[in-house]
Amino acid sequence: MSGVATLLITSLGLAIIFGMMRVINLAHGEFLMLGAYAAILSARAGINIWIAMLIVAPLIVGVIGFVVERLIIRRLYGRMIDTMLATWGLSLALIGAVTMIFGNTVAGFSAPLGSFAIGSFTASAYALFLIIATIILLGGIWALLRFTAAGLIARGTMQNSEMAAALGVSSDRVYAVTFAAGSSVSGLAGALIAPFSGVVPTMGSAFIAKSFITVVTGGAAMLTGTFSAASLLGTVATLGTFMTTPVFGEVMMLAVAIVLLRLLPQGITGRFFRRAL
Amino acid sequence: MSGMKLSTDIAAASIVTIAAILALPNFLELFALINATVYVSMSVLALSLALVWGFGGILCFGQAAFFGLGGYSYAVAALNFGDTTYAVPVAIVVPALVAAALGYVMFYGRISDVYMGAITLTLTLILFNFVNSTAGDQWRIGAAPLGGFNGIPSTPPLNLPGDPGNPLPPQSIFTISVVSLLLCYIIAKLILRTRFGRVIVAIRENEHRAELLGYDARAYKLGIFVIGGAMAGLSGMLFANCVFVSPTMFSLFYSGQIIIWVMVGGLGTLAGPVVGAILLNLLTTWAGTLPDISPSLILGVILLLAVLILPRGVLPSLAVLFGHERGVT
Fold first, then answer.
1. How many domains does chain A have?
2. Exposed, middle or buried, B63 (CB in 10 Å: 0-12/13-18/19+)?
3. Would A147 be classed as within a structural domain?
4. Residue range of the domain that includes A133
5. Is residue A273 in a domain?
6. Which residues of B touch A245 (CB under 8 A)?
7. ipTM value of the model?
8. Does residue B32 sit at the A interface (CB-CB below 8 Å)?
9. Chain A window 112-131: which residues touch B at a Cβ cutoff of 8 Å?
10. Nearest to residue A187, comparing CAs of A3, A26, A10?
């Protein structure tokens, strides 16, 4: 379960940006990394760890995302490959910059909350918290898009930006806000997984490929797709890990993803749940 | 592009090659010469992606997979045969076969751009993870231990064909690398002159139209993809000769670098990526010696600027500047 939740929460930011804007943000892993750093540094500066993780990290990364959108992404809309390359460059640059500032060492903080026991079975309470947080986040985004005016405007702009503009929506601003929102979800995810993964400048590269594949396997409907792909791939990885080693668990998951993409070239939601969000 | 242009391009490339072979070993120290050989092997790699991406229009995030496979098949074959004569063709054929299998899955499955990127990236990751975990004695192919994270430090250098007791010195390996680069360049040039090459470019320009004209785009793309895989395998073999094979050959960093060389050098040209690979490698090495600046920051910023400011690459932009409207290839 926590494997699925980790995969889901680390993919969500990418899924929002890809699903809404058709932009593949290859610096997504570094947004996670920045979120983790933001949380850890502010926690060290004496801010309560929950505030650091749940508020400071998404806020800071959201702002960074906004700046990135204004400076880089905005110039490249509709040129998917170029966006991928530019964000890849950004990813390298961010890794380099963070290495220079904070050094190439593992900083970590232990998971808050300790562990709990059900019979003879103990689990980390933090893992449970991560699962619940992922569910709440997913539900929150869905509700935001489905029921609020802002969500309606965002969806409308993504579907037909000219029409939205004709109706008086500033599509430019909607894009910027969407990208910032996706980034801040990434920042939150990065902060939440930091106790598990350790915080290093290169931590993003461990996630970007898996998130990328999860989102792409999910297909066009971003929430349903990412959810189903993460459940499937996360389960495969966990099962594979139990049966063999973590490495082969991951290899199995990637192999399943390739087969899936061959069978469903438009991703899972290209075939199923087509009308879902 | 006239026949004149083709022969002058090839002549110019040959002159540069001969000059490099004659001059560089004389005034470079041994270490620098080995480094130069590494750069040349990287140029072959850049050339392979230049062909696949720049002319085939296939953005392959996993060119490093074929590079690594070439290196590993060479090392494993050479250790098993005890002679490198037959290891060289193995290093070219294995990546070509893998490229054929992967290409078949992708092109005949009609998988679109982004998904293709995801699949090639995934393959690279699978190989990286797999090879990384092959430490220990149970992981060996014949006489060759795979060595996991450490790679195969005992990768043997090339020897004279049929004479395993006589490994070649670094100077000869440098010569071989430079000549291989020239050959690959000429082969790529010639491929683009043939009907096959022209159809490839037509498909890049407009796949739909090419298909309506009766060309099977899938087969043509598969063809160029396999050629690119073979070329990347060759470059992996050359690389294995100057360093040794290790899982980093499959890493994301390499895959990314190759794309940067091609992008900065000029997409849709052959000479550009070669020059780009050499210059950017020099730059990375130089940046590695700087005390406070991380090389990946510099590389990242270069890629960003290249995409934003010179989307056509440095070489074509220069060519436009000097009035060659057609650009260089």
1. 1
2. buried
3. yes
4. 2-104+120-201
5. no
6. 133
7. 0.73
8. no
9. none
10. A10
